[in-house]
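Researcher: Next entry: SCP domain-containing protein (Brassicogethes aeneus).
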Amino acid sequence: MLSNLYPTFLILICTIDISREFGNFNPQRRPQVMGDLIPFRSLSTHRKRIQDKIVLYHNFFRTQVSPPAANMLRMKWHKGAAKAAQKWADECMMLNHDNTTGRFIKEYGSCGQNIFIASHKVPWLFAIKTWWLEKDLFTFGTKNNLTLVGHYTQMVWAATHEVGCGVTKCNHFGNFTGKVYYNYVCNYCPIGNRPKRVGKPYRRGKPCNSCKKHCHHGKLCKNVCAYADQWANCRQLYKYSPGWLCYTDTAEGRDRARNCSAACFCKRKIHD
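Model: Predicted structure:
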């Protein structure tokens, strides 16, 4: 979705104190180093510290959506999604996305994916902030152009609650050698950007209004669903015939329940 390389950058300054979890985190501070001065280990998602930072950045930005979200889930790191993201980053296919099989996670099916490329090493915050800034092209509740706002809407998709990322240094695009660039990839589970719902990636309302007994620091919900529906019409099927859909005493029933596991097994939990 983003077609330009980013040799330099500037991050504007603002200060927002939202909770102890974010501490003194300033999402728009000017970085101390950039480019070749950044050691690659400070980007490596094999390190727990970097994983925690990536999750922190995502959760912070998810609290900053406008209008506010009533059902925004708190994100955490997913090792399987990170492994898949790193594998795809290593393929060095620039802004081309991995196929659905490459992004497949057993509990969730195919996960979402954001990609960022830069001609120099930049902090993860800059990559994530670049996706976030697509918010300026987004209007809640209206028909939006997915090619312009898709990174943003995946980042703030309410039911998405696991993220895993990878980064690599590339000197080729597929089988073609060329200039060096850095490939940043994040996978998001369960997948967001569902057709016809891009304009409403979350439920509008007071933060945590959809999870009053499961609220984290008054901003993000914790009542996650560990599954994702594989059929697009699971909610409709459950609404009209829950007993038939979730009946597990026959092979056919178990197959239906498996494909609509969120609808069947995640009552009072947030899911698509």
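Model: Note for the record: Strands lie at 76-77, 104-105, 109-110, 112-118, 162-173, 176-189, 215-216, 220-221.
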